[in-house]
Amino acid sequence: MTQIKFKKVSDCSLSEVVSVWNRGFEGYSVDVTMDTQTFLRRMVTEDLVAEASIIALDADSPVAIVMNGFRKHDDKVYAWNGGTGILPEFRGTGLSHTLIEEVQAVYHEQGVNVANLEAITTNERAINLYEKHGYELIERLGFYAGPQENQDITVIHDYELECVRVPREKIRSLSFFQQDMPWQNQMESLKEGIGYILYDRERPIGYAMTKERYDVYGNVESVQLYQVGIEPILEYDLLLMLTFLHKIFKLDRDGVKRHVINYPNRDTVLLNALNELGFNKTIEQVHMQKIL
């Protein structure tokens, strides 16, 4: 390996960027390869910035990539590592340390206050590397897959519940809206998301954000849950959570693919409800953070 140089993703052709991305994730435990359209869509969805993302060059050949995103909340600038990929033949050469140092310089230029990233739990080498560079594990995140067949659950409660589809902006106005979520679960990443508010009579007591897919006849094919929140006074009501999830996941219908995406393990009531409904964890990640 010669002396590594860097250039911005914005200075590269799209085909070059996608190529080094796909080659950089060869052999990864999860398939994250993409075509150009999917890559561009992800950049828009996750607020990834080409001018602040980097490609590493060895003798002018791309050998690694880091995609970075930035958001501002409460006068703080947050950064997210949207993927670090290194070509197989350059892994274990110390390049990962060089990449992190270069990314830190980018974050400094962008005025970042808090840096975030995620790593698959089984990727101990990456987790140890980030810890050496000052990142701390703040929570674990789970992906869950649910049953595709319908479920008939009978609930008995004192509520008169109505689940209403609403604009995303209406959810933001709720007093119990959760901004403190992993990057992919934040409202900014749910530009094509569908919002629901759960009402008890006319009082909002819960909300959810999903992504859904329908066939040409309007029949639901899949539901992905990214956020769910319950009014604090009711947040430990397991029966209420089960009722809400039954509505959100449309569990009265057969043949629907149901998933929970990248959800923090701090919400024990949700996790207990998912277990009762037959959901199983498929992937676990660690959520890591560094205060700059």
From TrEMBL:
Record-linked SUPFAM superfamilies: Acyl-CoA N-acyltransferases (Nat)
Pfam families to which the protein is assigned, alphabetical: Acetyltransf_1 (PF00583)
Protein keywords: Acyltransferase, Transferase
UniProt entry tagged with the keyword Acyltransferase: yes
A molecular-function term among this protein's GO annotations: acyltransferase activity
InterPro entries listed in its UniProt record: Acyl_CoA_acyltransferase, GNAT_dom
Record flagged with keyword Lipid metabolism: no
EC code: 2.3.1.-
Domain named N-acetyltransferase: residues: 4-162
Transmembrane intervals: none
Listed name of the protein: GNAT family N-acetyltransferase
Species whose genome carries this gene: Piscibacillus salipiscarius
